[in-house]
Specification:
alpha/beta; binds flavin-adenine dinucleotide; Rossmann fold; 8 helices
């Protein structure tokens, strides 16, 4: 498979840099071709502004969505953005790797998403009507490909557990997994998270590296998180609310959008705490 790893850490000698090398070595040993977008090394421009739309008239009011749509359709997006889009189209698997900063991805990676996910490429795709609300959440340009996160945190695993003060890690990562990866069609694998890494010693590193190698070996076979497809019948259109008869009674929030119906639960319960915590006891 072709794997694209988008790396967002400013220091190559960091723990994240070392884990990236572990992942790449294992993927290469498995026969995969790996391409890295090293955002800091590329000096990636993270903010959307006028410079992103060179064809926009100087006196035109900048509307980012409309400008993105026109530039994508006309092929006038900037070369750095076009290059990343080409990489996404060529890759069978996308990995986003980053340290958790303020409970989410570093700004440079968010800016990569903002700019690369153009209108017509990642959103604004497909029929948009009262019957079909665009090709998204399970459908879209990147459907049929896999994606996953590699994340490191300073906080402990318990801090990110269902009753932990930071909130469950699946909830914190939901806007990325569901909103950024599932939205344009990716099958999203459970994230690889290394917790409490700030005082990591060599032994701790070896344990994390072993876990990561295992995830890289099973990239093609790990069952994805069973998010519900937007246009698969589970949602009312156009309100896009989950049908009242679906989902466990009393469950609200992000967990509703994971399909824990019996035939799918067995494949995910062991790997996704969000699904496991909702099984009947
Ligand atoms: P590094 O600092 O590079 O390394 C961590 C440790 O690993 C070091 O002690 C290093 O010696 C050791 N190590 C062991 N083996 C190796 C090896 N082979 N190579 C390199 N290092 C090794 N945490 C949270 O939980 N939630 C947050 O919201 C959050 N927000 C943050 C916001 C900011 C702006 C910052 C700077 C940190 C934040 N943190 C947060 C902590 C952050 O997530 C961790 O510091 C980060 O994940 C550590 O990853 P790193 O690659 O930077 O580690």
């Amino acid at each position: 498979m072709n794997v694209l790893l988008v790396f967002a850490h400013p220091e190559p000698r960091s723990l994240n840099g070392a884990l990236r090398d572990v992942a790449v070595a294992e993927l290469t040993a498995q026969g995969h071709d790996v391409l890295i977008s090293d955002l800091y090394a590329q000096n990636w421009k993270s903010e959307i502004d006028r410079a992103d739309f060179p064809a926009l008239a100087k006196d035109a009011r900048l509307k980012p969505g409309a400008a993105s749509s026109e530039a994508f359709a006309a092929g006038t997006l900037t070369d750095d953005v076009k290059a990343e889009q080409e990489k996404l189209l060529s890759a069978d698997v996308l990995i986003l790797q980053f340290p958790l900063w303020w409970y989410t991805m570093p700004a440079i990676l968010k800016g990569w998403v903002d700019r690369v996910y153009a209108y017509g490429f990642a959103y604004g795709v497909g029929e948009h009507s009262d019957r079909h609300w665009g090709d998204r959440f399970g459908e879209g340009t990147l459907a049929g490909k896999r994606a996953m996160l590699i994340v490191t945190t300073g906080g402990w695993e318990q801090h990110y557990s269902p009753r932990g003060i930071n909130g469950p890690i699946d909830d914190l990562l939901f806007p990325i997994n569901h909103g950024i990866l599932y939205y344009p069609g990716y099958d999203v694998l459970p994230p690889f998270v290394a917790y409490r890494v700030d005082q990591l010693d060599e032994k701790g590193f070896d344990l994390i590296a072993d876990r990561l190698r295992m995830r890289m070996r099973t990239l093609a076979t790990t069952p994805p998180i069973p998010y519900r497809q937007q246009n698969g019948g589970d949602y009312l259109i156009p309100s896009l609310q989950l049908r009242p008869e679906l989902g466990d009674p009393g469950v609200t929030g992000f967990g509703l959008h994971v399909d824990c119906s019996a035939n799918r639960l067995s494949t995910t319960a062991d790997i996704l705490p969000m699904a496991r915590s909702r099984q009947p006891t």
